[in-house]
Amino acid sequence: KNQVEQSPQSLIILEGKNCTLQCNYTVSPFSNLRWYKQDTGRGPVSLTIMTFSENTKSNGRYTATLDADTKQSSLHITASQLSDSASYICVVSSNTGNQFYFGTGTSLTVIP
Amino acid sequence: ETGVTQTPRHLVMGMTNKKSLKCEQHLGHNAMYWYKQSAKKPLELMFVYNFKEQTENNSVPSRFSPECPNSSHLFLHLHTLQPEDSALYLCASSQGGGPDHQPQHFGDGTRLSIL
Predict the structure, then answer these.
(1) Which of A36, A40, A87, B61 has CB 3.0 to 4.6 Å from A44, enough for a Cys bridge?
(2) Using CA atoms, how far apart are residues B24 and B5, in angstroms rounded to an integer?
(3) Cβ-defined contact of A43 to B43 (cutoff 8 Å)
């Protein structure tokens, strides 16, 4: 069964600290993996898209990694800011079937 | 401003009402999507339109009826909804309708509450 699991479910960190969010998937065949940021009351916004051949991709203070062999991805946030407080959603795309498989998200809260 | 506008932002309706959700994208994309987002659950893809043609219908109940008159506009017509249909309904668009490497751009959603 094609699934995407994210951990932790929620996370609280101090402003300025780093954190890492995890995404494990069983989707096959794999096309790409996306990370989205969703602020409260807003729609998701794309952070990165990674294909099979890409191991790491950065977008400012956000760095995503992908290990296609172990089917794991992580999103690392450096020097967190209060505005990083949001839900982070991992989405894995497949070339067949439902095409988009969403995780339930990690809720990140950054406190001063 | 995401380039995808959804109206209304909030909607409260009774189970016997008929209402419509509207989505408009200003990005020149050719694919549009409807998603349902319920608390503690992953986003659920409902419908996909590519060049105005419906290419995906994920076993959505017939009380949800999509309409895509052109590549820039997408509607979701609602009738005889159930309390479990209360959720955030998100519209998205992308350049290309498959799981290619183009990001989806989401609107801010319509928060729907069924009484």
Answers:
(1) A36
(2) 5
(3) no
Please answer yes or no on whether B43 and A89 come within 8 Å at the CB atom: yes
Q: Given an 8 Å threshold on Cβ–Cβ distance, is A99 in contact with B105?
A: no
**Segment B54-66, tens digit of pLDDT:** 877 778 999 999 9
* Cβ–Cβ contact A59 with B under 8 A: no
Alpha-carbon gap, residue A110 to A91, rounded angstroms: 23
| Mean predicted lDDT score pLDDT of chain B | 90
Q: What is the DSSP letter of B41?
A: S
pLDDT(A97) > 70: no
Which segments of chain B have a pLDDT < 50?
Answer: none
Q: If you write DSSP's letter for every residue of chain A in order, what string do you get?
A: ---EEEE-SEEEEETT--EEEEEEE--SSEEEEEEEEE-TTS--EEEEEEETT-SEEEETTEEEEEETTTTEEEEEE-S--GGG-EEEEEEEEESSTT-EEE---EEEEEE-
What is the pLDDT confidence band of residue A60, given thresholds at 50, 70 and 90?
Answer: very high
